[in-house]
Amino acid sequence: xxxxxxxxxxxxxxxxxxxxxxxxxxxxxxxxxxxxxxxxxxxxxxxxxxxxxxxxxxxxxxxxxxxxxxxxxxxxxxxxxxxxxxxxxxxxxxxxxxxxxxxxxxxxxxxxxxxxxxxxxxxxxxxxxxxxxxxxxxxxxxxxxxxxxxxxxxxxxxxxxxxxxxxxxxxxxxxxxxxxxxxxxxxxxxxxxxxxxxxxxxxxxxxxxxxxxxxxxxxxxxxxxxxxxxxxxxxxxxxxxxxxxxxxxxxxxxxxxxxxxxxxxxxxxxxxxxxxxxxxxxxxxxxxxxxxxxxxxxxxxxxxxxxxxxxxxxxxxxxxxxxxxxxxxxxxxxxxxxxxxxxxxxxxxxxxxxxxxxxxxxxxxxxxxxxxxxxxxxxxxxxxxxxxxxxxxxxxxxxxxxxxxxxxxxxxxxxxxxxxxxxxxxxxxxxxxxxxxxxxxxxxxxxxxxxxxxxxxxxxxxxxxxxxxxxxxxxxxxxxxxxxxxxxxxxxxxxxxxxxxxxxxxxxxxxxxxxxxxxxxxxxxxxxxxxxxx
Length: 534
Hints:
This protein is of the alpha/beta class. Helix content is 29%, strand content 22%. It has 18 helices and 24 strands. Strands 8-15-16-17-18-19-20-21 form an eight-stranded parallel sheet. The chain has a six-stranded mixed sheet with strand order 3-2-7-22-23-24, with no helix packed on it. It has a six-stranded mixed sheet with strand order 9-10-11-12-14-13, with helices on both faces. β19, α12 (374-380) and β20 form a beta-alpha-beta unit. The model has no long low-confidence stretch (mean pLDDT 95).
């Protein structure tokens, strides 16, 4: 196979032994050599090599998103997209417009709403308003965090709701305080009462959505993603089949590490699958569990009560004894543990469990690690553990999060600089579709701790801002560490995978972080092949 020489670039390798080079030589998908353009062309340019001129553009190791849901991105493409809706009126208008093309009795599915973005002070729609907007069919609308949902009366009819109905543990059907009837808001696992009655999308629909989602992630510069989907893609077998056909058969998309929900652990074992099963393009990853919920609906588990709801501490998704049992089972299977952990009490509960277990072959992952008390940081700063953080959360959660937690706890919220300076290994993700998967928006949030539109804002808890180097490493080296793949990706080092992202501007020499917002991905390179070019 002929070699490919990527030449005439400003290539930041993130390898301290050779930080910047002009040219990289690729052979069979791996980095063969790197150095100056003159030396590389002299050594390799006469051997029928293909030469690609980078035209002086900046290159980094391929960008990695350490936590997202490609299934959710796919559903945003297939269903009603409510991301960015800025008022109740706009939300109801979009719902009613979509309903016009939904036949009677068929489900209207939507996702991405966030009442914190409502600029007119309005609240979420009531069940009466939803009924008026869509009187002829059931609706199910997922909040951006996927921890809260809106339904109309038709949906409750379909699931045969009655006041004495048993609600799954950790879930809640919120009642109107005046009528004592459902308000239309459903929290956490109570959503299963609804989703069990929603027909699955066809395999071809899911495959189309996944292909489009993968195309978009590659266009954003991502070469690897860690994605959690079996609960939304019809279980383990269908999820793996979808990815296998799209990635291995059609050679589309970024490299994918599949986080598998705990309920499918036995299915994995029966099929001989395990963490690391697969190839360099598609692998089984960690087993995903939940320790708590989210701040938005006050289901994240706190050690002290919510500032705006005294006496309420959030929700533990598992009894502690059950969490111990689950983690022991995963560890005994030889797989990595990954736990959704937002509140500080949830983190303490998870660390109490991990401290009891022998170290595994793979790093355990604390997903989100949003609120961390100081004494817990030392326990998290263990080379066998990684904090999987989402920088964009800070810009979406402020300012309303201040009311939830109060001023005293704010110093422990999204404390990324404190984590890194304390020796905690961190990886950067988006949790898309909760937040945009564009890694440059994640980098911007890590640098500024504010929305792109708030150019004159100093940043929320600005002492926790990261440098551009630290932020880029979250989405490169950190992502590689999260899956124990630092030996093959994360830096542009000889022998590693030839995954690169080419940018229109040099991220490391920008005078102002907002220059990131006008920076484009010029090229995405996976396995030494140009997967996207602007």
